[in-house]
Amino acid sequence: MEITNVTEYQAIAKQKLPKMIYDYYASGAEDEWTLQENREAFARILFRPRILIDVSKIDMTTTILGFKLSMPIMISPTAMQKMAHPDGEYATARAASAAGTIMTLSSWATSSVEEVASTGPGIRFFQLYVYKDRKVVEQLVRRAEKAGFKAIALTVDTPRLGRREADIKNRFVLPPNLTLKNFEGLDLGKMDQANDSGLASYVAGQIDRTLSWKDVKWLQSITTMPILVKGVITAEDSRLAVENGAAGIIVSNHGARQLDYVPATISALEEVVKGAGGQIPVFLDGGVRRGTDVFKALALGAAGVFIGRPVVFSLAVAGEAGVSNVLKMLRDEFELTMALSGCNSLADITRNHVVTEADKFGVM
Description:
By secondary structure, the protein is an alpha/beta fold. The chain has helices spanning about 10-15, 20-25, 35-45, 90-100, 115, 135-145, 165-170, 200-205, 215-220, 235-245, 265-275, 290-300, 310-340, 355-360, and strands spanning about 45, 60-65, 65-70, 75, 105, 125-130, 150-155, 225-230, 250, 280-285, 305, 355. The protein contains 14 helices and 12 strands.
């Protein structure tokens, strides 16, 4: 069957993957209200296209933290990619590099920072979970920097793991042939079978619940890499991110896997952008499945978007070629959306190109 859009990969991945693995990637927290809302909120934003504009040349290039990208579509950190495909993070890294965009490697990757760097040139960010043992964190940050990673995406919404009921039912655990490669040799790379989710038990034992803004300062003291704060969904925290020297913000609800009943990220985006006051770039993570979604995020003030699940599902179906195809489809759809909206470059995309529910009710 010919795949014509990003969403189609999910159903094929479901047929292909063992239930425990598919459920780990697909599920959200508790009632999965936010999981559904991350998608549905995009559907409530409509376009106000401008016509009779010369759109014969469309430029989607952008600069993120000083790095030139082919498009404002980047790859979010997703854990344990070798569960999806034997090439795992290697395939994702190659696809991102070939597409001229950024891959963010998860702390909980099944390939190490060094292994991913060995795939060749590419702009890569490293997602960081702060462990109770700060020596481990320091070592990991240094390794990422040495391996040529360009920024840290600090996940701030996970002092504890969200309640993901599919993982509890399946007694989720990393398959025995795989390890969390970045922690191998530190006795932290193994995840034991537990009475609930093996990952939830691992997080409870290893991840630092005391993490606060002072630790952002601490991180800045141990690395020259810029720090993106991932998991901000309010204006208050957006302001604090600026005050504490973050280089950027990723508006994220962790793919709806942490606190259920938080708004969709596309709904929280404008508030966070306002809070940042134009001082640092704000990115959107969550629910992006179409080029139209990318355009909507940029119109509401995002400097770019990150995609997560589409990467693991396409990886499961077709390895590197699958991830490349997802990036290509999103790129092509986004280019078409720009043309049909009357925009030649990202700078041409304005707030007036979209209308939200809030606009309709005159809230703004």
